[in-house]
Amino acid sequence: MAYKDGNGSRISGRLRSGDLLHAGLVLSVLLGFWCVSGLEVSTGKITVMEAMNGSTVLIPCTYSSCIGIQRLYFNWHYDDNGTMLKLCEGSIAAEGADPRFSVYHERVEFVGNSKKSNISILLYNITFADDGDYVCFARNFKEKNRNHSATFTLRVVDQVVEIDNTLTTIIVSVVGGVIGFLIFFMVVKALVVHFILKKDDKNKECLVGSSAGVDNTENGHTTAKGTEAKGTPKA
Ligand SMILES: *[C@@H]1O[C@H](CO)[C@@H](O)[C@H](O)[C@H]1NC(C)=O
Ligand SMILES: *[C@@H]1O[C@H](CO)[C@@H](O)[C@H](O)[C@H]1NC(C)=O
Ligand SMILES: *[C@@H]1O[C@H](CO)[C@@H](O)[C@H](O)[C@H]1NC(C)=O
Ligand SMILES: *[C@@H]1O[C@H](CO)[C@@H](O)[C@H](O)[C@H]1NC(C)=O
Ligand SMILES: *[C@@H]1O[C@H](CO)[C@@H](O)[C@H](O)[C@H]1NC(C)=O
What we know:
The chain has helices at 2-34, 162-234; strands at residues 39-42, 48-52, 57-59, 62-65, 70-80, 83-94, 100-103, 108-110, 121-123, 132-140, 147-157. The N and C termini lie far apart (111 Å). It folds into two domains: 39-160, Immunoglobulins (Immunoglobulin-like); 162-222. It has a six-stranded mixed sheet with strand order 2-11-10-5-6-7, with no helix packed on it. The protein is of the alpha+beta class and 235 residues long. GO terms for molecular function: sodium channel regulator activity; transmembrane transporter binding.
């Protein structure tokens, strides 16, 4: 008996550790879904921007981390036809701590704010040579310095094209017009169908009345036919 008890408890003990392992696995899988990558950097929803030569543009970048920030290192590069030109770099010691940064480009200003997880830059007086990709890079010491980056594309144009706007206006009005017409058409159709159905209902009422009559007459008819059929051969 004592041996059996011992065996039983050993089994339950094994089960318990198995359950723990299981729970741990489930937990880590859940965490994995929840916190896919520790750090994420983003240059926003719209990552391509057209700007006029001579203007000053904000090149946006923000970061977020579900495990927290610790000794965040960041930099900005301009992809000059394959050669990466470093525009600025810096670090943020902890969440909300003031960033320390250095700028290596005369027309670049760092306008980030660590309280808003913002590491954006301003590029002054852009020229056509500034056209291209701007890469925002960051790595968080807290997640083993894994690299993360996001790209923002700047298109420098002679003038912000009006045609695009008129084209969108045209497209929007055409689509709006078509949708409006469809709605109008559907309302008219619904009304017509409604009235026709109402009429039909009345007709049906008539029909029901008449069909009963028809039934009667048919019965009468068959009988009549019967009598007729019976009558004709005789005649
Ligand atoms: C933009 O470039 C064009 C052609 O190079 C030039 O004529 C124009 O003055 C420039 N505009 C600005 C605002 O610098
Ligand atoms: C970019 O590089 C390619 C070849 O590497 C070259 O043909 C092209 O002219 C370059 N463009 C500019 C704008 O420098
Ligand atoms: C941008 O251009 C304006 C006018 O040409 C000039 O006063 C200003 O110093 C320039 N800014 C930078 C950062 O180069
Ligand atoms: C980042 O900071 C700049 C400068 O203050 C601001 O213009 C920009 O809107 C901010 N971006 C975001 C996504 O908060
Ligand atoms: C991360 O980026 C650095 C440059 O900042 C590079 O030297 C390193 O190889 C990259 N690591 C990985 C894993 O891509």
